[in-house]
């Protein structure tokens, strides 16, 4: 069992528990949101939304998956939320929480928080029905929370031209049928680096890769090389390995 296999099982159990909580969970979510609402400016959050609105004009209300119990008050998920924009043939995910979304808290005047947010582009059409596609989107949000949790707990920064290899052979998709088992990281070419009042925010994109592709990597240069061989930066769960 790989690291992501363990994560999948944990997230499935968590999702079942959330479903059982039903209306009671919705009440708690409202209470927590009201109790922890920020009176300070949301300049960091607003800057991210404005950049994605520039790329996706008119999408003022994208899919959004907020955190029930925030990290700073004891929650398990470090990200305050994840938005998912409709890019036509794919979904474009962006995280909120690895940069400073509200007031400036870090001592680094140049960068906001960890200096970046994660993004991910998922090709549509892997599932035959809307219900499974929505579950897949929810699963990807869980993966993004998982990667962010490593940063928050271990201080690991996932920068461009790096890769995440866990040794697992099962797919990172919802039903673990894909040949993609891990990620490389690139600078997202769709959105621009932001200079916010809290500092610089870059967008580091995760791209799904097969086990064979990941095992062929050993350096930043090798990541650059394999990235150039891909058709595009959109993760397609149905694709075969290119090595």
Instruction: Supply the number of helical segments.
Output: 5
Can you tell me the overall shape? globular
> What is the averaged pLDDT score?
87
Structural class: alpha+beta
Characterize the biggest β-sheet: 8 strands, mixed
Order of helices and strands: HHEEEEHEEEEHH
Q: Give the strand tally.
A: 8
Helical content band: 25-40%
Rounded radius of gyration (Å): 18 Å
Low-confidence stretches: 5-38
Please report which band the strand proportion falls in: under 5%, 5-15%, 15-25%, 25-35%, 35-45% or over 45%: 15-25%
What is the CA-CA span between the terminal residues?
24 Å
Structure description:
Helix 1 (3-35) crosses helix 3. The longest helix has 33 residues, at 3-35. Strands 1, 2, 3, 4, 5, 6, 7 and 8 form an eight-stranded mixed sheet that branches. The chain has 243 residues and is α+β, with helices and mostly antiparallel strands. 34% of the residues are buried. The chain contains five helices and eight strands, in the order H-H-E-E-E-E-H-E-E-E-E-H-H.
Question: What is the topology?
Answer:
Elements: H1 3-35, H2 43-55, E1 63-66, E2 81-86, E3 90-96, E4 111-123, H3 130-154, E5 162-164, E6 180-187, E7 194-196, E8 199-210, H4 211-215, H5 220-229
Parallel strand pairs: 4-8
Antiparallel strand pairs: 1-2, 2-3, 3-4, 5-6, 6-8, 7-8
